[in-house]
Amino acid sequence: MTLIKSINARQIFDSRGNPTIETDVNLVNNICGRASVPSGASTGKNEAYELRDKKKSYHGNSVFKAVENVNTIIFDTISGYNVLEQELLDQTLIDLDGTPNKMKLGANALLSVSLACADAAAKYLNLPLYRYLGGSRPFRMPTPMLNIINGGAHANNNLSFQEFMIIPRNCSTFTDAIRKSSEVFHSLKRLLDKKGFSTAVGDEGGFAPNLKNEDQACSLISEAISKSGYKLGKDFFMSLDVAASEFYKNKKYKLASSKKPYSSDDFSNFLLKLSKKYSIISLEDPFAEDDWDAWVKFTSKYGNKFQIVGDDLYTTNIKLIHKGITKKSSNAVLIKPNQIGTLTETLKAIELAQSHGMETIISHRSGETESTFIADLAVATNSGQIKTGSMSRSDRVAKYNQLLRIEQLLEEKKSLKINKLF
Q1: 51 and 195, same structural domain?
Q2: Measuring CA to CA, which residue among 334, 313, 330 is closest to residue 388?
Q3: Bridging pattern class, strands 359-363 and 385-387
Q4: Same domain, 279 and 368
Q5: What is the pLDDT of residues 269-320, one digit of tens each?
Q6: Which residue(s) pair with 239 in the sheet?
Q7: How does pLDDT run across 366-421, given as a tens digit for each residue?
Q8: pLDDT of residue 151
Q9: Claim to verify: residue 271 and residue 334 sit in the same structural domain
Q10: Are residues 158 and 52 in the same domain?
C-alpha cells in the first residue's frame, strides 16, 4: 500500500513567473504526494545544482530536462520503493545522480521527488506533515522574521542589503506574533505612501522603495513600529539579511549608497553602529562566504550579543556546517532544502546544527511556489524561527496561513510552545 506506483513531474511557474518543477508521487492505493521546488536569485556558490535547459524558450530557464529525468531515470529506479523509507529513497536519489552537487539529474529534480515522497507518506498515515516529519514530541511554533523592505537582488532600488526584517517579541502564540507583524507592515505602507515613496513590492513581498541608504530603511521601519503602537527594542527587534557576498569585490564591501568601499573591519563597525541604533539583533550573511576570518572574528567578539546567521556560508551543507562549528564562525544556520537537494540531507543539517547549540532558521527562496512544506518543516524540527517573506503575495502568505492552521491543531492537543529566543 505504501509502494510507489507512478511518478508524474511537470513544469509549473514560481512567484517570479519563471519555470520550476512540480512532482506527483502516486502510491499503489492511489494516494498522491505532491511537491514543488523554489529558486533563489541570490545564491551561494556551494549550492546544489539547479538544472535548467539554457535554451531559447523561457529565456533559458525552462526545466524540461529535470522533468524528463524524474519521469524516466528516477521513476525507473525507485518504482516499487516504499515511501515510508525516506532515508533509503533519498540515498538512492543521491547515488543515482552520483555527482557532488547533483549536477547530473539536478537538485531541483531530486528535491521534488524527495519531498513528494514525504507528502505521500504523511497522507498514507493520515498524519499532518509536521507530525510525520517530527514524530510525537511536543512542538513549538516558530517566530516569524517578517521581511518588510526588500533590497539587493530582490528589488530594483538603491539598497545593497537584501532583507530588512522585523521580529516580534513577547508573544504567547504565533497568531499574536503574526498579527503584530501585520500591523507594522500596513503602518509602513501608509508611511511610505505619505512620504511619497513607492509601495510596490519586491520578490519576497516587502516594499521596495528607492531609498537613500540602509539607515533610512531602518529608520522608516522604526517609525512604522512606533505608529503601530509598539516600541522598537521592547515589542520588536529588527533583523537584516545583509547578503554581503553580493557586494564583496576585491576583498572589500561596496554599498551602492557609499562612495568608499569598506574593509572587513570597517564593515563590521558599520554593522555594529547600525545595529545599536535600531535594535538589530540578528545579522544574516554579514560577511561574504569567502571572508571566513571576518566571520570568526565577529562571532568571537559579538556572538553573545547577536544572532549571527550563515546562509551563503553554509548552503545547508553538512560539511560546511561542520567547518563552521569547528571554526566557530556563527551561532545560527539558515536552512533551505533546495540548497542541498533532499529531505534527509536537510534534516541532518538541522540536527547537526541544533546538536551543537546553533539556532536553525527555516527559509523560503525569492522565487517561491504556493507549497507550504517549509511551514511544516519549521514546526517539525522545532526550529525557532522562519523566514518566508512579507504580508503580501500569496506565495509568502500561504506559509503563514499554514502555520496558523498548525497552531490551531497544536492548541487542541495542548502541546503549543512559542519560541522565546529573543
Answers
A1: no
A2: 334
A3: parallel
A4: yes
A5: 999 999 999 999 999 999 999 999 999 999 999 999 999 999 999 999 999 9
A6: 165, 282
A7: 999 999 999 999 999 999 999 999 999 999 999 999 999 999 999 876 544 566 55
A8: 87
A9: yes
A10: no
Residue type for position 1: M
Please report, as a single letter, which amino acid is at residue 38: P
Domain assignment present for residue 420? The answer is no
Tell me which amino acid residue 152 is. G
What is the Cα–Cα distance from 306 to 279, expressed in whole angstroms? 10
Whether 131 is covered by a domain: the verdict is no
Gap between the Cα atoms of 288 and 242, Å rounded: 9
Which residue in the block uniquely carries the three cell numbers 516529519?
133
pLDDT of residue 254: 95
pLDDT at 47 (0 to 100): 94
What amino acid is encoded at 299 in this protein?
Answer: T
Give the domain extent around 15.
4-126
Tell me, what CATH number does 10's domain have? 3.30.390.10
214-226 pLDDT, tens digit each:
999 999 999 999 9
- Do 92 and 190 sit in the same domain of this protein? no
In a domain, 137, yes or no: no
Residue at 230 is within a domain:
yes
C-alpha cell at 29: 492505493
pLDDT at position 154 over 70:
no
Whether residue 285 sits in one domain with residue 223: yes
CA torsion 259-261-265-268 (nearest 10°) is 60
Same domain, 221 and 102: no
3-class secondary structure, 142? coil
Question: Where in the sequence numbering do the catalytic residues fall?
Answer: 204, 336
